[in-house]
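dumping this here before i forget
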Amino acid sequence: MATHQQPGPQGIPDHWPVTGQRVRLRDWRAEDLPVYESWIMPPEGGGEHDWQKFDGPFYPNFTAEGAQRWLSTLREQVEAGTWPDLRTTAVIADAADDSFIGQVSWYHWEKPSQDDGQGSHVMPLRSLGVSIYPPEYWSGGYGTEAMKLWVDHLFTSSDSHRLDLETWSGNVGMCKVAQKLGFTEEARIRQARKVRGELHDRMIYGILRTEWEAMREAGASSSPS
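structure:
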């Protein structure tokens, strides 16, 4: 059974990490970085890693220089231990041995605007990300549980009224995860992505806090099978 944290005085969870049956969401550690490096550095023989064929394949992959710059920034943060109370990124670890298998993230897609004094402003849109790198973990419910734990954590620990998830129609697995966790397909921008010569749709999913609360009350938020 997943471990769910209770909010503290300012809405920040009293404990972290969050552990499920298959995966654990936790902070980055120094020993994670060489493993992560092996998954984001360009393969020695050329080409790309298997995960990059599905995770935003229409965006450029890391160059060696870009990967090392990002690793240097992440290493500094790991060494300093300066994580925000509400994490914007976390490691996905195998719950069996705590080994690094991927990461989750949370970032502003559109930041809120100032209220005009009449109750009108842009609401924040925050998009979720989940990446699991070893192909042997792509089945068996690891990604579904990681995303579920992350959604539960963010709604429990923040005041966000909605969460968003963007993917593409060729990533059938991610589309199924979104639907399984109660996300609604809110936009299908047709033929907006081209992957290996074929046109695909840009897919945008969303879930409201009220929908998430209703699922929890109905017991639909139990650990995925």
